[in-house]
Amino acid sequence: MEIFYVTLVLAGMFTILIKQWFPPDLTLFSVLSIFVLSNVISVDEAFQGFANKSVITIALLFIISKGLFNSGMLHHIIEKVLKYNGNFPWLLLKMMISVSILSAFINNTPIVSTLTPLVRNWGLSNGINPSKLLIPLSYAAILGGTITLYGTSTNLMVDGLLQQSGHPGFTILEFSYLGIPLTLVGLIYMYLIGRHLLPHRSYKDNRTPMKKSANSENMQINHFRNNKILLFVLLVMFTLVAVQLISIIKAAIIAVLILLATKSISPAEARKSIDWSVIILISSAIGIGSAIEKSGVTQTILIAILYINDRVGLLGTAITIYLVTMILTEISHNIAAAAMMFPLGHSVALEIGIDPKMFAMLIAISASCSFITPIGYQTNLIIYGPGGYRFTDYLKVGFLLSIFCLICTVSLTFLIWR
């Protein structure tokens, strides 16, 4: 009865996420509360996600991202990249390369939210429809986020769940084994095929002109100079984490303290920069994942997965887990999908005797590679309105890319971790 009850509640949750009746964070927190009140899990088990060090790291990374954006360097880089000489494919490739590199080192969601109005206005000013630019912007940020551990919140959450299960977590560059090839595949696809599938939307140019004062320009120049030192310090922090001399959460704490000490960000800005909806969403998803595992739902699905494994082997099992995670992501939310699938992937790995990192990596990547719908990943939703997109535009551009990412991810994880 408990398995049936939990499954019924989860079905309702996915229905609400698909229909977008309520915000994802409110939906998942409500479901978590239902599981607590109905004694599916204890209060301690339900809210362990809020104390998870990966969630705390994500909050710190929001502050670091804000500090870097305050420097004005992101705008400076993009303005240098967006030099148009009439060669649109080359412009698109330059923009996607730049955004994917930035997304490897800064959380990809604030990058897209910051660059969307900038890229849209630039396109309107230069006679290029924003609908030709914003899907590539989102896709580049998603792909770039898979390169490092902290490129996307999904990677950090899965890493936290892996450590919570008693296994060593991922190193900061372990994701690059898959992230770099995936990003190259995405760039080549968009350059050769994807750009031809981008829609052309016509809409009114309702921009408000931006006025720059001499004071604001001087402030930007001062910020730019001051943050050369800051960027050097952050680069040193990244190197120390990469060679495993310091943990990522300690590096993030040090970086935030440097930002505050150098006045690159004020305490008020630091508080406001944290996207609390993402924090609540991830923390609630971790608790729901615990409820799924404790109720026996995971064990029930495990039987079906093991049956598949007996028939088609490890490769077929890996493809199945990737596909299920991808579908859940596209119809609901990437964080929810990863949290739901991790207990299953972990149980399957232990049952068939392989490194749990293999399926953890598969789930993290497949939950991130959301290209088919606007609701699966936050960056796709950010550009939906400004690009004048329709739901089907993502399907046309992203379907083939999703297939290529599946082939690339499954092949590499099978070769590296089997």
TrEMBL record:
<feature type="transmembrane region" description="Helical">
    <location>
        <begin position="133"/>
        <end position="152"/>
    </location>
</feature>
<feature type="transmembrane region" description="Helical">
    <location>
        <begin position="359"/>
        <end position="377"/>
    </location>
</feature>
<dbReference type="InterPro" id="IPR004680">
    <property type="entry name" value="Cit_transptr-like_dom"/>
</dbReference>
<feature type="domain" description="Citrate transporter-like">
    <location>
        <begin position="16"/>
        <end position="363"/>
    </location>
</feature>
<keyword id="KW-0677">Repeat</keyword>
<feature type="transmembrane region" description="Helical">
    <location>
        <begin position="397"/>
        <end position="417"/>
    </location>
</feature>
<protein>
    <recommendedName>
        <fullName>Citrate transporter-like domain-containing protein</fullName>
    </recommendedName>
</protein>
<feature type="transmembrane region" description="Helical">
    <location>
        <begin position="312"/>
        <end position="329"/>
    </location>
</feature>
<feature type="transmembrane region" description="Helical">
    <location>
        <begin position="54"/>
        <end position="78"/>
    </location>
</feature>
<feature type="transmembrane region" description="Helical">
    <location>
        <begin position="172"/>
        <end position="194"/>
    </location>
</feature>
<feature type="transmembrane region" description="Helical">
    <location>
        <begin position="5"/>
        <end position="22"/>
    </location>
</feature>
<keyword id="KW-0472">Membrane</keyword>
<feature type="transmembrane region" description="Helical">
    <location>
        <begin position="90"/>
        <end position="112"/>
    </location>
</feature>
<feature type="transmembrane region" description="Helical">
    <location>
        <begin position="274"/>
        <end position="292"/>
    </location>
</feature>
<feature type="transmembrane region" description="Helical">
    <location>
        <begin position="229"/>
        <end position="262"/>
    </location>
</feature>
<feature type="transmembrane region" description="Helical">
    <location>
        <begin position="335"/>
        <end position="352"/>
    </location>
</feature>
<feature type="transmembrane region" description="Helical">
    <location>
        <begin position="28"/>
        <end position="47"/>
    </location>
</feature>
<keyword id="KW-0813">Transport</keyword>
<dbReference type="Pfam" id="PF03600">
    <property type="entry name" value="CitMHS"/>
</dbReference>
<keyword id="KW-1133">Transmembrane helix</keyword>
<dbReference type="InterPro" id="IPR051679">
    <property type="entry name" value="DASS-Related_Transporters"/>
</dbReference>
<keyword id="KW-0812">Transmembrane</keyword>
